[in-house]
Amino acid sequence: MAEELTPATPDESEEPIKQRKNGLYPGVSDELAENMKSGWADTELRDLEPIPQAAETAARRAALSARFPGERLVIPAGNLKTRSNDTEYAFRASVEYAYLTGNQTEDGVLVLEPEGEGHEATIYLLPRSDRENGEFWLDGQGELWVGRRHSLTEAGTLYGIPASDVRELAGALREATGPVRVVRGYDAGIEAALTDKVTAERDEELRVFLSEARLVKDEFEIGELQKAVDSTVRGFEDVVKVLDKAEATSERYIEGTFFLRARVEGNDVGYGTIAAAGPHACTLHWVRNDGAVRSGELLLLDAGVETHTYYTADVTRTLPINGRFSEIQRKIYDAVYEAQEAGIAAVKPGAKYRDFHDAAQRVLAERLVEWGLVEGPVERVLELGLQRRWTLHGTGHMLGMDVHDCAAARVEAYVDGVLEPGMCLTVEPGLYFQADDLTVPEEYRGIGVRIEDDILVTEDGNRNLSAALPRRSDEVEAWMASVSS
């Protein structure tokens, strides 16, 4: 990486641009500073169109306005976070901010100011980096270092919201009067400006509302989720094609292969890829991905592509590394498949959210009793939760801009709620027999199986968004053979 510079004599009215302690240039001559101010073409973009989801983000802001009349609402994007010394993590805007604006740049803030019976929205952003004070080429976040920002005029066109300079916002918020709420946890400077104007309880109400607003997806969101799933299916195909190379290296080859698809077709992976081979499949969130990939064992691949608009898929397949299930692997896999089938069948409008979980858990409990691993009857097993030694986790979750979407929603609106058309959730039962579990026969130990699909609730039932990826054991084997041939 190159290193930043600094002006020798910054303008007294501005904060000096920070100089790297061990930079090779001690300063900037007056002649060079003057030279850098001129000779640049006009690059303003004048033929922009609003982003595709502009109508949807406007409707979301209208719903927010109606819920909190007469109150100032402040929703920050967040700031860059240091990874090490002077390098930062890749930025991802807060879900609340991106959901309401479609914008994804650091330091942005959406403010809804009460006006009449509604609100006037303004998006506060950093403007183009300054060429007069040298920021554009001297500052570590200047245009020549990290790329061009949109001008405020361009941003206003793209997002359908008037744009202002975010550097003036903190001062304005300190002077503001009247009730105000802020989404906490993303921008310490904005929160500090509001410290004597907000309460934790009122701010939590705002966060909960924005979480519950995402429970039912609009048509744009459904389209993005399908796009994410389609890319994810292609990523799984990519992995099957290189299993021989993974055997020669490690689980990292699988992770890297899927990541390439995510970066080429999307923004990123939606979460850390779980590429768990052999007994690692029994570790629910195995993301180290540094283990061996061996023929004859299973690979549990839990991965999802995130689109450029932040919507993520979340799909799991458990694959025989050599392309064929052994007898015991197939027995366990088929039990999980049967449980998932029962769970998916329970997803429909008007059903309780818990129904799909209960349906899947019942099937798994029945198999565990049938195999003699736990003493029945099944009702006793379920009442005491004895199946959980091997099923471990819940059978699914809401899906959207967060892989575990809507997490701040009230319990009565989420896990104790009722399914509605437009909700999207995962159905992902699993069985995990730990390598050191002495309560099961040796042949079970070290086998972990999870099957996960992304299910959209429709008016008349459900649609499996990830149906293009085979699930039944014989279909998985046939698919792997066709893909790898």
Outline the fold blueprint.
Layout: H1 30-35, H2 54-67, E1 72-76, E2 82-84, E3 87-88, H3 95-101, E4 109-115, E5 118-125, H4 135-138, H5 143-146, H6 152-159, E6 163-165, H7 169-175, E7 180-182, H8 188-193, H9 200-212, H10 219-241, H11 243-248, H12 251-265, E8 268-269, E9 274-277, E10 298-303, E11 305-306, E12 315-320, H13 327-345, H14 355-370, H15 378-384, H16 388-391, E13 424-427, E14 430-433, E15 447-450, E16 453-458, E17 461-464, H17 473-484
Parallel strand pairs: 1-7, 5-6
Antiparallel strand pairs: 1-4, 2-3, 4-5, 8-11, 9-10, 10-12, 13-16, 14-15, 16-17
Helix pairs in contact: 10-12, 13-14
Question: Top keywords for this entry?
Answer:
485 residues, three-stranded antiparallel beta sheet, alpha+beta, 35% helix, 17 helices, disordered N terminus, five-stranded mixed beta sheet
Folded structure, characterized:
The chain is built from 17 helices and 17 strands. It is of the alpha+beta class. The strands form 6 sheets. Strands 6-5-4-1-7 form a 5-stranded mixed sheet. It has a 3-stranded antiparallel sheet with strand order 9-10-12. Helix content is 35%, strand content 15%.
Please summarize what this structure is.
Residues 1-26 are annotated as: Disordered. This protein has 485 residues and is α+β, with helices and mostly antiparallel strands.
Q: How are the strands of the biggest sheet laid out side by side?
A: 6-5-4-1-7
Q: Based on Cα principal axes, name the global outline.
A: globular
Instruction: Please count the beta strands (DSSP E, at least 2 residues each).
Output: 17
Major sheet summary line: 5 strands, mixed
- Total DSSP helices: 17
